[in-house]
Design brief:
246 residues, alpha/beta, seven-stranded parallel sheet, binds fructose -6-phosphate
Length: 246
């Protein structure tokens, strides 16, 4: 089942997404949160930090597992997803860093890195709430359009469009890593609840395809139509093509 929550703009989207995460944390202080990077959730993390500072949220019992990481980037690299998480959330709240997990991009052997990450997720007892962004081509995590849905954590070669979209964060396009470790579709679908955040007119087409089109690995996010508990929080611009349908 998919629940759509429409916000007027990015800031309201961020607050509403933070509401969903806050509710999860309050109802289950030992929650395992699946986290995402990218530009969309930055405002959501800022709201969570704000609420923590106000004394309304407690991260001490929380465990987090991130969706993905560039292969080859160590934690200290300011473009690594670990660095992003530390910068936007971990260093600003009372989460125990020993309970925060991001795939280890420095493990050269992809099979070893991916197997290890699946073991970590299993050891947490499973993800209670998985936060996702949405790529322009429908990717979730780094699961790019493909012939089949990749199941578990695996190593991907990034699509050219993804490298170009991410180039804005690097000094040049050549510096964007070409591979990444990502949770697979099955890994993501195993989460008890899913929260997808989406903002901006440039995502309106893919929002329509992902949630009202065919379920196909050519649009990886479309698989979420088969999950039993999905909340999509988007702003009016991102929901422009589905406004009449929700
Ligand atoms: C991030 C991730 C990606 C992004 C997606 C959207 O961990 O896995 O799937 O969620 O590329 O990115 P933004 O939010 O920058 O548009």
């Amino acid at each position: 089942m998919i629940r759509f929550i429409c916000a007027k703009d990015y800031d309201e989207m961020s607050r509403k997404a933070a509401n969903v995460i806050s509710a999860q944390m309050v109802m289950k202080p030992e929650s395992v949160l699946g986290l995402a990077t990218g530009s969309t959730p930055i405002g959501t993390y800022a709201c969570l930090v704000e609420r923590y500072k106000q004394g309304d949220l407690d991260f001490s019992g929380i465990t987090s597992v991130n969706l993905d990481e560039y292969k080859g980037l160590p934690h200290e690299n300011d473009q690594s997803y670990y660095y992003f998480m530390n910068d936007n959330l971990f260093s600003k709240v009372n989460i125990d860093l020993n309970n925060t997990y991001v795939p280890d991009g420095t493990i050269e052997d992809a099979a070893e890195a991916c197997e290890k990450y699946e073991e970590i997720i299993a050891a947490t007892g499973g993800v209670d709430l998985q936060l996702l962004g949405l790529g322009h081509n429908g990717h979730i995590g780094f699961n790019e359009p493909a012939e089949v849905f990749p199941k578990e954590t695996h190593c991907v070669t990034l699509a050219q469009s993804t490298i170009e979209a991410n180039a804005r964060f690097f000094a040049s396009k050549e510096e964007v890593p070409t591979q990444a470790y990502t949770m697979g579709i099955q890994t993501i679908m195993n989460a008890k609840k899913i929260l997808l955040v989406v903002s901006g007119a440039d995502k309106a087409d893919i929002v329509y395809k992902a949630f009202f089109g065919d379920v196909t690995p050519l649009v990886p996010a479309s698989v979420l139509q088969l999950h039993q508990d999905v909340t999509v929080v988007g702003d009016e611009a991102a929901f422009a093509k589905i406004a009449e349908l929700i």
